[in-house]
Amino acid sequence: MSQTSINSRLAMIQAFANFMDNGSQSATVIFYEGVQPTNTAIAADSNNALVTLVFPEPCIKEATATYVEFHPTDTATVIKSGTAAWARIYNGAGDVAADLTVGTDISLVNTNLALGGSLSITSIKLRP
What is residue 36's three-state secondary structure? Predict the structure, then answer.
């Protein structure tokens, strides 16, 4: 197993933080039902989108040698009923930053989202 120095991890994490706030819009996280794509290069099926949450600008609350923590999102209205299976984080330019599997990478109090319901995220920490 390879080891990276604290300084190199900090540089990578800071570059990620800069990437997230790139662009003219705010960074977002969209929750989807259905099958998660095998990698971030595969477009998400917009018909499976359940809710879009928006991060404030800047979106990064804290960057440490072991994780990047995002500020809490806004509270958004669910646009389609379904079971949240995965989420995709986009930067302010609409570029994909990460895919998260619900239940493994990200936890929700209730994965069954009802049309017209609301959702927000209080904490996301990504660990490189």
Answer: coil
What is the percentage of the chain residues whose pLDDT exceeds 90? 73
Q: E strand or H helix at 52, and its extent?
A: strand 49-54
Question: Helix H segments across 34-97?
Answer: none
Could you tell me which residues come within 8 angstroms of residue 64 by beta carbon, excluding any fewer than 6 positions away? Answer: 13
Query: What was the pLDDT predicted at 32?
Result: 98
Burial class (CB in 10 A: 0-12, 13-18, 19+), 121: buried
Contact 119, 53 (CB under 8 A): yes
**Tokens matching residue 75:** 């509270």
Please report, as a single letter, which amino acid is at residue 97: A
